[in-house]
Design brief:
This protein is an alpha+beta fold. The protein has 2 helices and 12 strands; from the N terminus they run αββββαββββββββ. The longest helix has 51 residues, at 2-52.
Length: 185
Amino acid sequence: MVELVVSMTVVLILTAMAIPELIRSIRTYQLNDAATRVADMLKFTRFEAVRQNKQINFLMQQPSAGVWLVGTDSNGNNTIDVTEKQQLIAGFATLLPSGPAPAPTAIRAALGGAALNTKSGSAGSVTFDSRGAIRVGGNVSTSIFVFYVGSQTNPEYGFRAVIQLPSGSTQIWTAQQSGPWQQIS
């Protein structure tokens, strides 16, 4: 009986030590998954614009607090219809305004000091032309768009930034609560 109690005590101690690391791993996975889904939707929208040889919008809509719907507006009606490709970004990791995330100094420096235009945190769109370049007001954009992903209530798990370059290529960056940003893809 004593051996059983000692064994159970050791198992409980090891379990108590492993739970925080397990939670951290799950939160990291959720952040990476949400950022990847946003990046994949941007890439898909760009691909569709090239494939269909026309301008197509990537849309972000917020149906309720903390819930974002991102998708491709293939028919150009400025809404994400049920028949159009879409992703729901909700739960622990969601789209955030720039405020909670660390300052993007490292991202700006790596991209040659260009200004970053935060697109997350409010409903909006990104328009891709038939060549896959971003258009703003009918002109090819020189802006770099950033979409922040994270948890406003649990910033200690870090943040992700999905970067959309004017050429149409996409990058994902990561940062802890205090920074600095590092590119991961």
